[in-house]
Design a protein that fits this description.
Largest interface: A-B, 14 and 17 residues
Largest sheet of chain A: 7 strands, mixed
Strand order of the largest sheet of chain A: 16-15-26-25-24-17-18
Oligomer: heterodimer
Strand content of chain A: 15-25%
CATH topology of the largest domain in chain A: Rossmann fold
Distance between the termini of chain A: 60 Å
Distance between the termini of chain B: 67 Å
Helix content of chain B: 10-25%
Radius of gyration of chain B: 29 Å
Shape of chain B: elongated
Keywords (chain A): 2Fe-2S, 4Fe-4S, Iron, Iron-sulfur, Membrane, Metal-binding, NAD, Quinone, Translocase
Pfam families (chain A): Fer2_4, Fer4_Nqo3, Molybdop_Fe4S4, Molybdopterin, Molydop_binding, NADH-G_4Fe-4S_3
Helix content of chain A: 25-40%
CATH architecture of one domain in chain B: 2-Layer Sandwich
Bound molecules: iron/sulfur cluster, FE2/S2 (inorganic) cluster
Number of domains of chain A: 5
Shape of chain A: globular
Number of strands of chain B: 5
Number of helices of chain B: 4
Largest sheet of chain B: 3 strands, antiparallel
Organism (chain A): Solirubrobacter phytolaccae
CATH class of the largest domain in chain A: Alpha Beta
CATH class of one domain in chain B: Alpha Beta
CATH topology of one domain in chain B: Alpha-Beta Plaits
Number of helices of chain A: 27
Number of strands of chain A: 36
Cofactor (chain A): [4Fe-4S] cluster; [2Fe-2S] cluster
Radius of gyration of chain A: 28 Å
Strand order of the largest sheet of chain B: 2-3-5
Structural class of chain B: alpha+beta
Structural class of chain A: alpha/beta
EC number (chain A): 7.1.1.-
Chain lengths: ~850, ~180
C-alpha cells in the first residue's frame, strides 16, 4: 500500500511562517517545525484518531471565533494560529485548574511524581493557585486493576488514553469508562482484572499517576534512577527498551519507541520478566559435576574441564545455541568448533536444516520485508505462526495496519490465531500440515491443479479451500508480506515459500517480501554469524556440513558425538521429543551448559555449567528477523559469586568462550575485549562489512539498506507433494502444539508474573469435546501411551480432529508426547471457577470462554467526604 | 664549598643586646601586653570547660537531623517520597520506600521509608531537606557532637534519626 504522499504547506504560528506537511496535526507541526510547545494530555498519535477530551491544547485560529483544540486540527495552508494570546493563556489556566479540581495532589506518595505530565503542565501553564475549596471526589484507593497494575481513580483526569488503547490498539476491549460526568471512572466492564498480553503499556500511557506498575510500586523516584537503553532479548521482536536501574538493579522496563521495530509498545513478558535477573535462583558460579553432584567450582577449573572435554571430542563435539545468544558469542563459538575442533555440528533449532541455496535465497535482501511493511502492505499472510505468542508486538503492528490502513490479513495455520477475527480469510490445516499447505498454495497460485488436490489433502484441507485462500491472498493488491514460522520450514517448505514469493513477484515490489519468525530470539543473527551446520559466517559454504538439531540428538545417543555445548538452550524444555533428548544427553560424555537456572537439563545431565548472563548484563549485537542489527548494551553489573569478589561470579560469555578457546590451544579464536569480537564479526560477514558499534547506535541498522549479497535468481520449480498425514482412527485426534507467550523460564521465577504462569491446557473443538462428553474447564488426559493432564478449553475456531497442547512450559510439557496422534480422555470435572482456567495469551475474542479469570475488582461506591 | 651569598644578603640591624634601648623595648612591650591581661581579670573566665560545659546554640542552629512521628498516632511522618534526597546538594540522603500494609502500617500515607539514611560525614547542614519535606518529617536539630571513630558510623539510619536525641546541647535564651 503506498505510504501517504505529503505536500508541504505554510502557516503562521505566533506571527512566524512555519512550513509543515499538509494535514499534520497542529500540535505536532508546532512542536516539530515551529518550536512551540502546545501542552497536551489526551493527544497521543499512537492511539489513533484524536478525541479532544481534555481541552488542554486550546489555541486561537484566526477566522474561527472559538478556541480550537490543537490536537485535532490539521494544519492548512495559510492558517494563522496564535498560542500566546491572553485568551489562550486564560483558557489554559482554566483547564489546568479544572483538571486539578478532583486531583488529590498527593504527589509525594505518587509513583508518577517527578515524571508526571500533569505536574509539568501545571508548573508550565497552570494558574499556581486553586479557588476550589469544596470537598474533592473520593474513591477507594489504590485498587488492583490487575495483578500487575494498580489504579488510583482519584488521580485520573479522564483523558481516555488507557481506554482508547485497550479498545483501539491492543483490541482486547476490556477497559471502559463507567458512569458519566464527574462520576466517571476507568474500569473493566464487569470489574474483572484487566489481564491481557499488552496491559502494561497503559502504565506508560497514563499522563498522571492513576495507573502505576505494581512491580515498580514505590521502588524509586525519577531522581534516584538511571535509564539504560538496550533491547529486550525475550523474543525475536527485539523491542527497544530502556531499563530503569537503581543500585545496580533493574527495577523497570520502559519502551524506547522505534517505529522500525516496536512502534513504542511492549508486551507484559518483556515489561515484567526482568525480575528474573535478580532472582535468588540464578546460577552465579561455574558448576562442575563430581560424581553425581554438581558442585561450585572455580572458573579455572570449569574452563579446564570444558576445554579437556572439547579437545578429546574434537570433531565429535556439537553445539546448540538459542535464547539470548549474541552474534558475537555465536561467532566465537562457531570459530572454535570449526577452526579448532573441526566440527560443523552447530544447530539453532530442533529440526533439520534447509538446503544452503534455499537458506540463501530466503535471506535475499530483495525479498526481505520490514516491520513497517506489516502495517502498510496490502496483504499480510501468516503461515503457521501466531504473532501474539511468538513476536507479540507484531500482532499490534498488524492490527494497526488493519485498523488504520485497511491492510488485509490472511491466516493459514493449524491452530486459530489471535488475529483470526481481523482476518480477511483463514484456512485451517491439520497440525503438521504446513509444508503440504505451502506446496498446495504454490500449486493454487500457479494453476497447477494436479499438485493442488494432492497437496491440499496432505495438509488436511481441500483444493477449493486452498484456491479460495490463494484468491484472497491476491485480491487486495500486489504488496504482500509473508510471515512464516521457522518451524514450518521442513522438507520442501522453503522452496515452496520461494516459489510463492516469485509467483507474487515479491522480490521486485518494494514494501513486500517475506519475514521469517525464528524459533529463538536471535535466530537470524546466529545463522548470519555462521552458527549453522550448513554454512559459515555470511552464508559461506563449508566443506563438510554438520548435523542439525535432530541429528545431533541421534548422534549423541548413539555415541557418534561425544560432547555437546548448550548455549542458552534447554532442549528438555524447549525442543520437541523430550525422551529422545534425555537419551541424547544421557549418552553424551560431557554436557557443557551455559544456563542461568537449575533446569532439568542442567540438574540431571550437565557436567560443566557456566553461569549465563541475563540480557541486561550483556554487550553485543543481535539481528532482528528483518535484518536490523541492534545493540545489546550492558545496563547492570554481573552478579558476583559467593565470595563477593569481582570476577568470581558471572562473566561475559565472549570471555568464557575465549578462555575455553585458549584452554584448547586455539589462541587465534580468543578475544581480549567484547568490541574486538564485534569487529571480527563485522569483518567476517561480508554484508556486515562497514558496520561499527557506533553506527548501529541505539536504533539499529538494517544491513540490507547498505549491503547486498548475491543470490542467483531462480525460477519457481516443480515441487514434490509431501506424503499425506498419518492415518488416525475416529477416536483419535491430531496433536498440534503452541508456545504460549508466558512459556519462558524467566516468567516462572518473576514474582509479578506468577499469576499468569503458563499451565497446561488442551484446546479442543466443540465437536470433539461433545463426542467425549468433555466440558470447558474439565480435567483431561492427553496422550498415547504417555499421558499428560491438562485443563480443557473449548475453542469454536478449532476444526474437528485437531487438538492443541502448550509446549515449552515447566510442568506437563507437551514434548514428552512423541506421537502426533493422541487420545483425549476426561479424567474429572473441572472447577467452574474461571480462575482455574489457565490464562493464555489470547485476548477475549471468542466470547466468555476466553475471558481471563476474575477475582473480582470491587467497583467502588462513590464516597463523598463530609 | 659553602655558598657565598655575597651581596644578596641584606643585614637587618637589631638593637644591640644589653644596650639601654634594647632593654627598654623588651620590658615596655611586655608591660603593654600585661596591661590588657590584667584589665580583663575582673571580667572573669570566658572559656568554657568543654565537654563538661557546652556553648548554647541559637534556636535556628542547624545540627544533626531528626525524623519525627505524629504525636497522637505514633506513625512516622516520613512517607519516603525522597524529595529530600532530590534537594540535597551533597547527595548524602538515601531513601528506599516501601508500601504500608494493614499489618505493617508505618506511616500515615500509602508508602513509608523502609530505608532512610543520612551520611553525616558528607552533610553540609544546609537544611534544604527540611525545606523540601512536604510533611515536616525531617528537621535539623541542635546536636553538633557527631565525632566518631569510624566513618561508617556516621551514616545515620532511620532508627537513629527517629530516636529521641540526647538533649546535650543547651539552647541560647533570648537575652544571651
Ligand atoms: S486512568 Fe490515566 S490514562 Fe486512564 S483516563 Fe485516567 S488519567 Fe487518563
Ligand atoms: S490534548 Fe487536545 S483535547 Fe486533550
Amino acid at each position: 500500500m503506498p505510504r501517504p504522499v505529503v505536500k508541504e504547506i505554510t502557516f503562521t504560528l505566533d506571527g512566524r511562517e512555519v512550513t509543515a506537511p499538509e494535514g499534520m496535526i497542529l500540535v505536532d507541526a508546532a512542536n516539530q517545525f515551529g518550536d512551540v510547545e502546545i501542552p497536551v494530555f489526551c493527544y497521543e498519535p499512537k492511539l489513533g484518531q484524536p478525541v479532544g477530551a481534555c481541552r488542554m491544547c486550546l489555541v486561537e485560529i484566526e477566522g474561527i471565533p472559538k478556541l480550537q483544540t490543537g490536537c485535532s486540527t490539521p494544519v492548512r495552508d495559510g492558517m494563522v494560529v496564535n498560542t500566546q494570546t491572553q485568551r489562550v493563556h486564560e483558557a489554559q489556566r482554566a483547564v489546568v485548574e479544572f483538571l486539578l479540581i478532583n486531583h488529590p495532589l498527593d504527589c509525594p506518595v505518587c509513583d508518577k511524581g517527578g515524571e508526571c505530565p500533569l505536574q509539568d503542565i501545571t508548573y508550565g501553564w497552570g494558574p499556581g493557585t486553586s479557588r476550589f475549596i469544596e470537598p474533592k471526589r473520593h474513591f477507594k484507593k489504590p485498587l488492583e486493576l490487575s495483578p500487575l497494575i494498580a489504579i488510583d481513580r482519584e488521580r485520573c483526569i479522564l483523558c481516555y488514553r488507557c481506554v482508547r488503547y485497550s479498545q483501539e490498539v491492543s483490541e482486547d476491549y476490556q477497559l471502559v469508562l463507567q458512569q458519566r460526568g464527574a462520576d466517571s471512572y476507568v474500569s473493566t466492564f464487569d470489574g474483572h482484572p484487566y489481564v491481557a498480553p499488552f496491559s502494561g503499556n497503559i502504565i506508560e500511557l497514563c499522563p498522571v499517576g492513576a495507573l502505576t506498575s505494581r512491580a515498580y510500586r514505590f521502588r524509586a523516584r525519577p531522581w534516584d534512577i538511571e535509564g539504560a537503553g538496550t533491547i529486550c532479548a525475550g523474543c525475536p521482536a527485539q523491542c527497544n527498551v530502556e531499563l530503569t536501574v537503581r543500585d545496580e538493579r533493574v527495577l523497570r522496563v520502559l519502551a524506547r519507541d522505534n517505529e522500525n521495530v516496536d512502534d513504542g509498545w511492549l508486551c507484559d513478558k518483556g515489561r515484567f520478566a526482568y525480575q528474573a535477573v535478580h532472582s535468588d535462583e540464578r546460577i552465579t558460579t561455574p558448576l562442575v559435576r563430581e560424581g553425581d553432584e554438581l558442585v561450585p567450582a572455580s572458573w579455572d577449573k570449569a574452563i579446564e574441564v570444558a576445554g579437556a572435554a572439547l579437545e578429546k571430542a574434537g570433531a565429535k563435539a556439537a553445539a546448540i545455541a538459542g535464547g539470548t545468544t549474541t552474534n558475537e558469542e555465536a561467532f566465537l563459538l562457531q570459530d572454535l568448533f570449526r577452526g579448532k575442533l573441526g566440527s560443523s555440528h552447530l544447530a539453532t533449532r530442533a529440526g533439520g536444516e534447509q538446503p544452503l541455496d534455499v537458506v540463501r535465497a530466503l535471506a535475499d535482501p530483495k525479498l526481505q520485508a520490514t516491520v513497517p511493511d506489516l502495517e502498510f502492505a496490502h496483504t499480510v499472510l501468516l503461515v503457521d505462526c501466531d504473532p501474539i505468542d511468538e513476536v507479540p508486538v507484531w500482532d499490534l503492528r498488524i492490527r494497526k495496519g488493519v485498523r488504520r490502513h485497511g491492510t488485509k490479513v490472511v491466516v493459514a495455520s493449524a491452530r486459530p490465531t489471535a488475529l483470526d477475527p481481523s482476518a480477511a480469510a483463514t484456512l485451517r490445516f491439520a497440525p503438521g500440515g504446513a509444508e503440504a499447505f505451502l506446496v498446495a498454495l504454490d500449486a493454487a497460485l500457479s494453476g497447477d491443479t494436479g499438485n493442488l488436490g494432492g497437496a491440499a489433502s496432505a495438509a488436511g484441507s481441500n483444493a477449493t479451500a486452498v484456491s479460495e485462500f490463494a484468491d484472497a491472498l491476491r485480491a487486495a493488491g500486489e504488496e504482500v508480506v509473508i510471515v512464516y514460522g521457522e518451524r514450518a520450514l521442513r522438507g520442501s517448505a522453503g522452496r515452496a515459500i520461494l516459489n510463492i514469493a516469485s509467483r507474487l513477484n515479491l522480490a521486485s515490489i518494494a514494501n513486500a517480501g517475506i519475514l521469517e519468525l525464528p524459533a529463538s530470539p536471535n535466530g537470524r543473527g546466529l545463522r548470519e554469524a555462521g552458527f549453522a551446520a550448513g554454512h559459515g559466517p555470511g552464508f559461506a559454504s563449508v566443506a563438510t556440513p554438520g548435523h542439525g538439531g535432530e541429528e545431533i540428538a541421534a548422534g549423541l545417543a548413539s555415541g557418534d558425538l561425544q560432547t555437546v555445548w548448550l548455549h542458552h538452550v534447554d532442549p528438555l524444555r524447549n525442543y520437541p521429543n523430550r525422551p529422545a533428548w534425555e537419551k541424547a544427553l544421557a549418552g553424551a560424555q560431557t554436557v557443557i551448559a551455559v544456563e542461568s537456572q537449575l533446569t532439568d537439563t542442567v540438574a540431571q545431565f550437565a557436567d560443566v555449567v557456566f553461569p549465563a548472563e541475563a540480557y541486561p548484563e550483556k554487550d553485543g549485537t543481535l539481528t532482528h528477523p528483518d535484518g536490523r542489527v541492534q545493540r545489546l548494551r550492558q545496563a547492570v553489573g554481573h552478579p558476583r559469586g559467593a565470595g563477593n569478589t569481582p570476577g568470581s561470579g558471572v562473566r561475559p560469555l565472549w570471555q568464557v568462550i575465549s578462555d575455553v578457546a585458549r584452554a584448547v590451544g586455539f589462541d587465534e579464536g580468543a578475544a581480549l575485549a567484547g568490541s574486538q569480537v564485534s569487529q571480527r564479526l563485522f569483518e567476517a560477514v561480508p554484508f556486515y562489512t562497514g558496520l561499527t558499534l557506533d553506527a548501529i547506535g541505539g536504533r539499529g541498522l538494517r544491513w540490507q539498506d547498505e549491503a547486498t549479497f548475491d543470490v542467483p535468481a531462480s525460477e519457481p520449480g516443480a515441487l514434490d507433494v509431501p506424503s499425506g498425514l498419518p492415518a488416525k482412527s475416529e477416536a483419535e485426534l491430531r496433536l498440534g502444539t503452541f508456545r504460549p507467550l508466558w512459556a519462558a523460564k524467566e516468567v516462572d521465577i518473576a514474582p509479578a508474573l506468577q499469576f499468569i504462569r503458563a499451565k497446561q491446557v488442551v484446546e479442543l473443538s466443540p465437536a470433539d469435546a461433545d463426542a467425549r462428553g468433555i466440558r470447558e474447564g474439565d480435567r483431561a488426559e492427553v496422550g498415547n501411551g504417555t499421558r499428560i493432564p491438562a485443563t480443557v478449553r473449548i475453542r469454536a475456531a478449532i476444526p474437528a480432529g485437531s487438538v492443541f497442547l502448550a509446549e515449552g512450559i515447566a510442568e506437563h510439557n507437551s514434548n514428552v508426547l512423541t506421537h502426533g496422534i493422541v487420545e483425549v480422555r476426561r479424567v474429572g470435572p473441572g472447577s467452574t471457577e474461571p480462575s482455574s482456567l489457565p490464562i493464555q495469551s489470547q485476548p477475549a475474542v471468542e466470547g466468555l470462554a476466553e475471558m481471563p479469570p476474575s477475582a473480582g475488582l470491587p467497583i467502588p461506591p462513590r464516597e463523598v467526604a463530609e | 664549598m659553602p655558598y657565598d651569598p655575597g651581596d644578596d644578603v641584606i643585614v637587618i640591624h637589631q638593637p644591640r643586646e644589653g644596650a639601654a634601648s634594647g632593654t627598654f623595648r623588651a620590658f615596655a612591650a611586655t608591660l603593654k601586653g600585661l596591661k590588657t591581661t590584667f584589665a580583663r581579670v575582673p571580667e572573669g573566665t570566658i572559656t568554657i570547660n568543654y565537654p563538661e560545659e557546652k556553648t548554647p546554640v541559637y534556636p535556628r542552629f542547624r545540627g544533626r537531623h531528626k525524623l519525627h512521628r505524629f504525636e497522637d498516632t505514633g506513625l512516622e511522618k516520613c512517607v519516603g517520597c525522597s524529595l529530600c534526597a532530590a534537594a540535597c546538594p551533597a547527595d548524602c540522603i538515601r531513601v528506599v520506600a516501601n508500601e504500608n500494609t494493614p499489618d505493617n502500617r508505618v506511616s500515615a500515607g500509602e508508602r513509608y521509608a523502609a530505608v532512610y539514611e543520612i551520611n553525616l560525614s558528607r552533610c553540609i547542614f544546609c537544611g534544604y531537606c527540611e525545606i523540601a519535606c512536604p510533611f515536616d518529617a525531617i528537621t535539623l536539630g541542635h546536636d553538633y557532637e557527631m565525632a566518631d571513630y569510624n566513618r561508617s558510623d556516621l551514616i545515620f539510619t532511620k532508627e537513629m534519626l527517629l530516636a529521641e536525641p540526647l538533649e546535650r546541647t543547651p539552647l541560647r535564651t533570648a537575652d544571651e
